[in-house]
Design a protein that fits this description.
alpha+beta; 12 strands; about 425 residues; 6-stranded mixed β-sheet; disulfide bond; about 10% helix; globular; 4-stranded antiparallel β-sheet
């Protein structure tokens, strides 16, 4: 990757990030596992007790809201808001693929629903042994190990991810791979060297398009129950981490400035590295290493797989697990699985925009947010009720960091997009 000697800093990019906020909310619409297609959480939640989806039930609610960054160390980060395990389980062979389809319709700069091309972030997928029936598991005690990740990947020349596009120099991320290359799908492989048994499969996408405090980062975690069959019962379950401990407010990925950073910076998703049984190094770059305790994954009574006789367990391997530091293009780095990265310099803070940029500026064709009929309904202020979740995320409707009340900066972001 060529070294570039500039910093990304564009008010236009920031304006684009506020476009279609309500549209840019997603969820796992469906997933394929063990040769069968299951509904995601929304259909499972709405279709009644006869639905056999193993997707966890949540209160993600209208608009498929994200978990905000101020909740990264709360139970909501495990599998979304007030998530509860499904009573059902999907059988999956060790070594086979699980394919997630995320909700998203439309094209970039068009009318998008389910995601928006101003949003960029990582994706990561994790497994945690239930040590019994996943339907009754205590979600806060689950210990997850990472089996897949994609963070800030590259800066492909001549694309909207680099200089000259609508989202100049944001870089190409794991979420871009899902929503704009792979048709809203994400495929992960269940490691073949795992003991058979019941596991929670957790996947998520995240976005860092809202610059500022970590509390404004957005996360969409989803979970489902699987029963791994035909596994290696002499294998070890990798050491894991509680989902409430994956993120730290000091993680460089969470404090990363999408619009004002040294060009060429790349990094993985936050948290421990991909487990060695899933093709990773089992360790992260930088930091102190730890020797984790390997957990017993022998299931009790899985509803869709037969119990296998207990087998001797090999001695636990020593692996390391720390948070991943991001790197610059000037570093000479080994592949990510065995990386010895050099941390990038601290990003230069984004200058505060002039409040006039996003308040009562020029209006296009005489339209404005309050009277264009698209959002406000019968009486003034109706749109505030429709987007009240956004007010909670953006300082309760007080003047935003970019200037102006919620309705003003949303209007101008929408005009920019149009």
């Amino acid at each position: 990757m060529p070294v570039m000697s500039k910093f990304v800093n564009s008010a236009a990019i920031i304006a684009a990030a506020f476009a279609a906020q309500a549209a840019a909310h997603t969820y796992v619409k469906e997933f394929e596992a063990g040769g069968k297609t299951y509904a995601g959480f929304y259909a499972a939640d709405k279709s009644g007790g006869d639905d056999s989806s193993p997707a966890w039930r949540t209160d993600q609610g209208w608009g498929f809201q994200p978990v905000m960054g101020d909740a990264i160390n709360t139970p909501d980060i495990i599998a979304h808001m007030n998530a509860e395990p499904s009573p059902f389980t999907a059988p999956v062979d060790a070594g086979s693929d699980v394919k997630f389809t995320w909700q998203h319709d439309g094209e970039c700069k068009g009318e998008e629903v389910g995601w928006d091309c101003s949003h960029h972030g990582w994706t990561a997928t994790w497994l945690a042994p239930c040590n019994g029936d996943c339907a009754n598991v205590n979600k806060e005690e689950l210990s997850f190990f990472k089996i897949h990740q994609a963070g800030l990947i590259d800066y492909p020349a001549g694309t909207r991810y680099t200089e000259g596009g609508d989202t100049a120099d944001t870089g190409y991320w794991g979420t871009d791979d899902i929503f704009y290359k792979n048709g809203n799908t994400q495929t992960v492989t269940i490691p073949k060297d795992l003991p058979s048994g019941n596991y929670v499969l957790r996947t998520e996408v995240a976005s860092v398009h809202n610059n500022g405090a970590v509390s404004e980062r957005q996360f969409w975690p989803q979970a489902l129950n699987i029963a791994i069959q035909n596994g290696n019962d002499n294998a070890q379950v990798p050491a894991g981490i509680k989902a409430t401990e994956i993120y730290s407010s000091s993680d460089p990925q969470l404090t990363f400035d999408l619009y004002n950073h040294e060009a060429g910076v790349t990094f993985d998703a936050p948290g421990p590295a991909v487990a060695s049984i899933a093709g990773g190094s089992g360790s992260s770059s930088g930091g102190d290493s730890t020797t984790p305790v390997v957990e017993d994954s022998t299931p009790s009574s899985a509803p869709v797989v037969e119990e296998s006789a207990s087998t001797p367990v090999a001695a636990a391997p020593t692996v390391t697990s720390t948070h991943v530091a991001y790197v610059t293009a000037t570093a000479t780095a080994a592949p990510s699985s065995e990386a010895s990265y050099v941390a990038a310099p601290a990003p230069t803070p984004t200058p505060e925009a002039d409040s006039g940029d996003y308040q009562e500026g020029e209006e296009e064709d005489g339209e404005n947010y309050e009277d264009d009929g698209e959002y406000d309904g019968e009486e003034e202020g109706t749109e505030d009720g429709q987007y009240d979740w956004s007010h909670a995320a953006y300082n309760d409707g007080e003047p935003h960091a970019w200037g102006g009340e919620h309705t003003h900066w949303r209007r101008h972001a929408r005009e920019f997009k149009a």
